[in-house]
Design goal:
Elements lengths: L17 H22 L4 H4 L10 H24 L10 H4 L9 H20 L3 H4 L2 E4 L3 E4 H26 L2
Antiparallel strand pairs: 1-2
Helix pairs in contact: 1-5, 1-7, 3-5, 3-7
Length: 172
């Protein structure tokens, strides 16, 4: 198993149907609860353990999820309200080095819980035409709302697997 990608890279070659997006939205909805359940018994030493050699700590992964999903939420809103907006990427590695990534994880867990309530509500309100709307990512190109739902469902599972695989390897 590649510890960087414990569930593999995001891949979806099928048709993005209402059923597929509902499953992805449920994964997005469930992430904060699943994340909280996995980390609730970890102490500070465990939280400050990298999930792989040279990787982020569990604490950094949790704070990254909050930052990444806040950015994603804004990108969805831009795509839904503007014509093919060009979104701004951010230096996630540099963000993980900032002081707020040393804060207690409950701050980002609470943020994720509130954010995912709003995000899920927004996503459940979308009509089929909304799924075809797009934004432009300077590195990835044009991305549809429908595909982006799948990307972020994967993103949550991806980072949750970083933490769960570390816990399993360490016997936590």
């Amino acid at each position: 198993m590649d510890m960087r990608y414990p569930i593999g890279n995001f891949q979806f070659d099928g048709e993005i149907t209402n059923s597929v997006t509902k499953d992805w939205i449920n994964e997005i909805k469930d992430l904060p609860r699943l994340l909280r359940d996995v980390v609730k018994h970890l102490d500070n030493e465990q939280l400050d353990t990298p999930y792989r050699p040279g990787g982020w700590t569990v604490r950094q992964v949790i704070h990254h999820l909050a930052d990444s999903h806040m950015n994603a939420y804004v990108r969805f809103k831009l795509a839904l309200t503007e014509e093919k907006p060009v979104i701004k990427p951010y230096e996630e590695t540099k963000w993980a080095e900032l002081s707020d990534y040393k804060l207690p994880i409950d701050i980002s867990l609470s943020l994720l819980e509130a954010l995912h309530i709003r995000w899920t509500d927004l996503l459940l309100s979308l009509i089929p035409a909304d799924m075809e709307k797009t934004f432009i990512h300077p590195d990835s190109g044009e991305v549809s709302v429908g595909k982006n739902i799948g990307i972020y469902a994967w993103h949550g599972r991806h980072h949750l697997a970083h933490i769960t695989s570390l816990c399993n390897r360490k016997g936590w």
